[in-house]
Fold this protein.
Amino acid sequence: SWPSHYVPESHPATQLLAASYEEETGKPVRYLCNVGGNYSRFIDVGYAYGNGFDGDPPARSHGPNEQISIDSLLRHMALHIAAVKKFMEEYEPPARD
């Protein structure tokens, strides 16, 4: 039982990630809340970045025959590259108390 992890939509890192998604896809971001345990909870500002796009067949994530289409994989790679570039150029972490 781990404590919940939540990064608000108003956080500068969330805003940069959302802007990167919208610039790359041309679609508005949809914020989703995941209650599963993953690596992101161990980082102050950690995010679990989804593995599917609207219209994709089910990926069967974390199950037998887990898969993703090559097209979706390449689209995700482009999103991650754009997000990392945006963070390197623009992100300034908030001061810690």
Observations:
- Helices lie at 12-25, 70-90.
- The mean pLDDT is 79.
- Residues 5 and 42 are 9 Å apart (CA to CA).
- The chain has two helices and no strands.
